[in-house]
Design brief:
CATH class of the largest domain: Alpha Beta
Subcellular location: Cytoplasm
Strand content: 5-15%
Largest sheet: 5 strands, parallel
Number of domains: 2
CATH architecture of the largest domain: 3-Layer(aba) Sandwich
GO molecular function: ATP binding; dephospho-CoA kinase activity
CATH topology of the largest domain: Rossmann fold
Number of helices: 9
Oligomer: single chain
Main location: cytoplasm
Function: Catalyzes the phosphorylation of the 3'-hydroxyl group of dephosphocoenzyme A to form coenzyme A.
Distance between the termini: 17 Å
Pathway: Cofactor biosynthesis; coenzyme A biosynthesis; CoA from (R)-pantothenate: step 5/5
Helix content: 40-55%
């Protein structure tokens, strides 16, 4: 039987990675949309050639890898360029994710994506688990992790789907505001529940 797909999302600093790791330890097949986004632009892949053709050699590093910072500066400054890039990459990332999920041997598989809702990737899933945390805690965690200022973190929070929007799409919400032991128990509980589901629906 084909595994059903659980979408795992949450704002920056909510603890998505810790939750994802807990599921991996339970043998759940997991693909990370951010990794897929990196794979599609590796040297030798068609997407990279199209990006260079469109933006010029300035978006390449000396070793032929994509210079993400240079590309990001180009598309952030120009919404039309950003749309062009998204139109090229989103379908390719979708294919990459689907192929990877299709190899899953666990009863359900997980797609982790910070932009699950915004990118429309939630349409590839049968159920959505939102990792939620109080905004102040998200800001503190991210500042520690990325050595960034609270202004930088708040700017990222604003760019991501609003919390209300994410909660509206979520079937399950895991409030990650306690310690790791508690988190692991919650994942264990959800995992057992997910194993009883057919096609992701109770």
């Amino acid at each position: 039987m084909k595994p059903w797909i659980l979408g795992l999302t949450g704002g920056i600093g909510s603890g998505k990675s810790a939750v994802a790791q807990c599921f991996i330890e339970r043998g759940v097949h997991l693909v990370d949309a951010d990794h897929a986004a990196r794979w599609v632009v590796e040297p030798g892949r068609p997407a990279l050639a199209k990006i260079v053709e469109h933006f010029g050699e300035q978006v390449l590093q000396a070793d032929g890898q994509l210079d993400r910072t240079a590309l990001r500066q180009r598309v952030f400054a120009d919404p039309a360029e950003r749309r062009w890039l998204e139109a090229l990459l989103h379908p390719l990332i979708g294919v990459e994710i689907s192929q990877y999920l299709a190899r899953a041997e666990s009863p359900y598989a997980i797609l982790v994506s910070p932009l699950l809702i915004e990118s429309g990737q939630h349409r590839m899933t049968q159920r959505v688990l939102l990792v939620d945390a109080p905004e102040q805690l998200q800001i503190e965690r991210t500042m520690v992790r990325d050595q960034s200022s609270s202004e930088q973190v708040e700017a990222i929070l604003k760019a991501q789907a609003s919390r209300e929007e994410r909660l509206r799409h979520a079937h399950d919400v895991l409030s990650n505001d306690r310690d790791l032991g508690w988190l692991q128990n919650e994942v264990e509980r959800l995992h057992h529940f997910y194993l009883t589901l057919k096609g992701g629906q109770a």
